[in-house]
Design a protein that fits this description.
heterotrimer; A alpha/beta (523); B mainly alpha (377); C mainly alpha (322); A: alpha/beta; Rossmann fold; 6-stranded mixed sheet; 34% helix; B: 377 residues; two-stranded antiparallel sheet; 14 helices; 4 strands; 6% strand
Amino acid sequence: MDDHLNVVELRGITKQFPGVLANDQVDFTLRSGEIHALLGENGAGKSTLVNILTGLYRPDKGTIRVNGEVVDLRSPRDAIDNGIGMVHQHFMLVPTQTVTENILLGLDEPRFNMNLSHYDQIISDLGVQYGLQVDPRARIWQLSVGEQQRVEILKMLYRGANVLIMDEPTAVLAPQEIQELFITLRSMIAEGKSIIFISHKLDEVMAIADRITVLRKGKLSAEGLLVKDITKQDLAREMVGRDVLFQLNKVEQTPGDTVLAVEGLKAINNKGIQALRGLSLHVAAGEIVGVAGVAGNGQTELAEAITGLRPITEGRVIVHGQTLIEGNLSGQRRSSHVRQVIDAGVSHIPEDRTHVGTAPNLSITDNLIMKGYRQPPIARGWSIDSLSANTQAETLREAYDIMAPTVNTPARLLSGGNLQRLILAREISCEPKLMIAMQPTRGLDVGAIESVQRLLLQQRENGAAILLISEELEELSSLSDRIYVIYEGEIMGEVKEADPETLGLMMTGTRQEDLVEARKVSQ
Amino acid sequence: MTTKPSLLAQYRNGARFRLRMEPRMEQPGWLGLIVSLGAVTFALVLGGFVLMLVGGDPIRAYAFMAKAAFGDIGVFSDTLVKATPLILVSLAAVVAFRMRLWNIGAEGQFYLGAFGASLVVLTPLLPPETSPWLMIPAMMVMGMLAGALWGFIPGYLKAKYNVNEIISTLMMNYIAVAWNNYFIFDVWSEGGFQMSRQFPKTAWLPRLTDYAAQVPVFRGLTIHLGFVIALIAAGVVWWIMYRSRWGYEIRLIGDNPRAARYAGINIVRNTILVMMLSGALAGLGGMLEISGVVHRLQGAISSGYGFTGIIIAWLAKLNPILVVPISILFGGLLLAGREIQPSGIPMLIQGIILVCLIGSDFLFRNRIRLVRVGQEA
Amino acid sequence: MDPIIILQAGVASGTVLLFATIGEIFTERSGILNLGLEGMMLIGAMSAYKTALATGNPWLGMFVAMLVAGLLSQVHALITIQFQADQVVSGLALTFLGTGLSLVFGEGLSKAGAVALLPSFSIPGLVSIPFIGPIMFEDQSVMVYLGYLLVPLAWYYINRTRPGLHLRAIGEYPAAADALGINVNRLRYFYVLVGGMLAGVAGATISLAVSPGWFSHLTTSGQGWIAIGLVIFAQWDPIRAAGGSYAFGALRRMILDIQGPLKIFGLRNPFYYNPYWGFFLQMLPYAFTIVVLVIGSREAIRKRMGAPAALGLPYIRGERGM
C-alpha cells in the first residue's frame, strides 16, 4: 500500500449511539486526486463516518490518518486545519447573512474590525478561479439552491481544504445542475483536490466516481471498488445484501370516478414567494397519481394546500365533487379547512413525520387517535373513551408491526421506520377515500420501504385515490399509474410511462407541449 | 473467558475515563419522583446553608417551621387555609403550561377575582340579606369571570398578534394591583382606611369554627369551605386534562402545535379559551381568599401566591392531583416562614427549589455513564 | 410639567432600562432567553448599595454589583446550556432566586444611613447645544454618559466586528457556526454573562445614581420585565433600544409630575383634584409595555424578521432527525 498516495485513511472506525451501532469496524481510504464514492442506504452509517472525519463525532475505536500521520480530530476546527472540508447536504449557511459573512464565519481573520468590501473582492476572485461564481454581497436567502451549494464549496476552498466531502450534493439539484456540478468536481480534481462523494443514487455514483466503498447497516460491505470493474446490479447487491427487487406487483385496473380535483391553485410559501402558480390536477378512485419534481418546486406547498394547512389565494380544492376550499385573496388560514378535509375522508401522510405527523411526548395511543378522536367509539360525548382508544391502539400496533414496549410509550422513543408505520396505521385504518402521501419512504430502510409501498398498492386496489409526491423517480415509476411533473409551482406535463429523459426535461422547466422542440434542439 | 480487569486496574494501566451524558431510553415512573425529592432535599440543604450565612440556625429554623405548619390540628388547619389559594393558582398554571402558554399572570388574575367577588357585595349587586346559597355562588361566578377577563386579554394578544404572553401577563399583574388599589383606597374605602368595609356574614364562606357551638373541637379552626371547593377544582381540572376531548387537544397543542394544526385543531381559539380558564381558576382563588379569610377587599391579599403557584405546578410535573399535597406543603412553608427573619427566606427557598428542580430534570432525561477514553487500533 | 425637566429625568431613569435592555440584547442574540433580569437587577441594586454603604466607595459597589449579577446569570447559563433545561422556567426561577437573595441579604438596608453616590456632572461645551444640551449633558450621572457611549459601541460590535458576526451566527444558526469550529456553548456562556453584568450595572444605577436607596423589591418595580419587552420592541437593535428606554424613562417622570400642578395647559388638572386617579397613572408604564410589545410583534410579522432564529432552543451537536 502506497501510504503517501493516501490522503485520508480510516481503519477500524467504530461508533456507538444509544440503541444503534452506527459504524462497526469500518475501513476507508482516499487516494490523492480521486473521486471516491461512499455508497449506502439511509441509516447505513455514511453520515456518521463522515462526521467523524470532519470532527463532529469522536470514534469509540479506530484510527484516522491524514497524509500518513495519525490525527485526533476533536472538533470541526481540527478537521479544517487538516485540510478536510465538508459540504453538507443540508446547507450550514446563516440565511440572514451575506455570502462573505458566511464564508468568513469562524475564522481568526479578520481579527476584530470587519472590512467587508475587501473580502468581497477576494471571494469573488476565488469564485472565478474555480468556476463557482456567486455575488458575495447577496444574502443567503436570496440565492438559489445551486448558488448556495457553491457558497458551501467556496467556504471550504477558502479555508484551504484539500479533501472535499460532498454529502448527497445532488439531492436538491435538477439534472442540468447536476451535470454542472460534475464538471465543477472534475475541475477541482484538476486543481489537486481529492473528493469523497456520498450518495445513495447508483447512477450518479457510476457516472462520477473513480472508486466506490459501500456501507451496509454500519459495516463495510465493499471497499475501494473500481468503477470500471462493476455493474449497477453488483452495487445494489452490496448495498442491500440481496438482489434488490426493482419490481412490485402492480395490478392493472381501470380508475373510477374523480375523487380529487385541484383547479388553478395559487399559494404563497413561507418566504413570501409565489409557490403555486395556478396548478391543476386530478386523481380518480383506484389509482396512484405521482408528482415528480426536484425538491423545492412547490411540492410541500401543494400537499399543504390540498389538506388545508396552507391558505390558497386562488383556485379550488374539490373532493367528491364538493368544493372544500376556495381561494381568497386575504390568504387567511382556517383551521376549519383542515377539519373539513379530514372529515371528507382525506388522509395525509406528511413530509415531516417528527415535527408534523406525531407528538413526541404523547403516547402511541394518543398519536393514533389524532384524526379519529372526534368520532365514536373513541369519542364519548365530551370525553375520550380511553378503553376503546387503547384497544384500537393495540390492534393497530399488531397489524402494522409497530415495534415499541407498550402503547403508552412516548412517540419520541420510536425509530423513524416505526414512526412512519404509526402514521400509516393511523392514516390508513380509517379507510380513506383519498390519500395525500408526501415522501412516504424517505429515510426508511429497504424493508420498511417495501412494506410502505405494498400498503399503498393495497389501498389502491381497495379503491382509494392516492396522490403520491416523491423525489424518488424509481418509486414513482413503480407505483404510479400516471405521473405529473411539477416545476416552479406549475404542472409541466403528465405522462403514463416514466421515461427519464422526458421527465428530466420537464423537471427542469420544459413544458410537455414544447418537448418535441426541446428534443430537436438537444440533438 | 478472560475476566475484564477492574476499573481501578484499568486506571492504573493508563486508561482515562470521562463522564458522558446520553439520553435515557426508558423512563421508569418512580425515577421522576426520586429525582424530584432529591432535588427538593438538596435545595433545602442549600437554603439552610444560606440561612447560616445570615446568622441563622438552619436545623432549628426548619424544625420550627415544621412544627409551626404541622405541629397540631390548629396550625394544620391554618396550613390548609394557606394551601387553598395555592391550589387554585397552581391549577391555573398547570392548565396554561400544558399548552405551553406561560401564564405568569395568575397573581393579577387572583386580584381581579377578588375584585369581581367584591363587586357583588360592595356595589352591591346583591343586597346583604341575600341568602348565602345565592350570594356565595354569585361571588364565585363573578370572581371567575373577572379572572377569565384578565386572562382573555393577554390570550387574545398572543393569539392575534403573537405577543409574548410572559411579559403581557406580568404587566397585567401590576395593572391589576393598581386597579384594585383604586377601589380600595377611594371608591370602597372604609373610614379612610386602606380596606373596604367588612362583608356581611352572608358573604362569608363557612368555616369549621363557625360550628364550634355544636362541635366544640372545631373551635378556632379557620379552615373554610374554600378548601373543599379547591379540591373539587383539582378534580375537575384532572378530568378536563386527561379524560375530555378538550384536554387532549390542549395536551397535543402543548406538545407539538404543528401536529395539532395538522389534526385540524384550532390553536387560536384554544389559546384564548385556555387563558380564560387559567384566569378563571386564579380568579376563583382570589374570591375564596377574600370570602373565606379576610372577609373584605384589601390591598395585601396575596403574598406572591401567583409565583409560588408556578413552582408548585412545575414540582407537580403539571399533574392536577399532585398539586394538592404539594400546595399543602408550600402552604406550611409560607405559614411558618412568616415568622422567620429575614423575610425573604421563603421566597429564596422557593427559588432554590425551582432551580434545583429544573436542573435535576436532565438527570431524569439522561443518564451519566463512565466511559473509557481512548482508541484501540 | 416642564418638558425639559421631564426629558432630563427621562434620560436619567431611561439609562437604567438601557443597560438592562442592551445586556439582554446580547444574551438573546446569542440564542439564550434570560427572563431573570428583574432578579439580577435587584441583586445588583442591593449589593451595590450595601457595598457602597460598607466601604464608602460607590465604584466598588458598581463592581460588586456586576460580579454578583454576573454570577447569578451563570447559574441560568449552566442550567440552560449544560443541562438543557427550559429557558423560560429557568429564567423565572432565577428571578425568584435573585429577588429572594436580595431581600434576605438586603434586610435592614433601607434604614441604613446616607451612602456615597456615583458622581454627577455636566459636560462643558456640549451642554450649550440648544435644546439637546440641557437635556442630555447637564448635571447627569456618570452612568448616563456611559450609557451614551454604550449604544454606538454595542451597535458597532454586533454589526461590524468579527466577534459580532459570530454572535449573530450562534443565535441564528448554531449548527453552521459549530461546523466551522465556533464553540457555540462557550460563547453563549459568555454572552449570558455580559447580559447579567449589564443587568447588575442597571441595578446599581438605580440604587447609586438615579433613585438612590433601597426599597426592597420596589427598587426595580418591574423594570426588568419592561426591559425584556423593550428588547422585542427594539427588534434586537441597540439603537432602537436606546430610543425605547429613554422614552420610557420620560414616561415615568411624566407620571410623577402630572399630579403636581393645579392646571395643565390651562385646564383643571384632574390628577391634582383626584389624587387616587394616580393609580391609573401607575398602570401606564405597564400598559405601554404591552402596547410596545404589540407594535414590535406586528412589525416582526410584517418584516418577516424578528427574533434570532435559534432563540430559546438549546444547541445539541449532531442532533439526529433533522
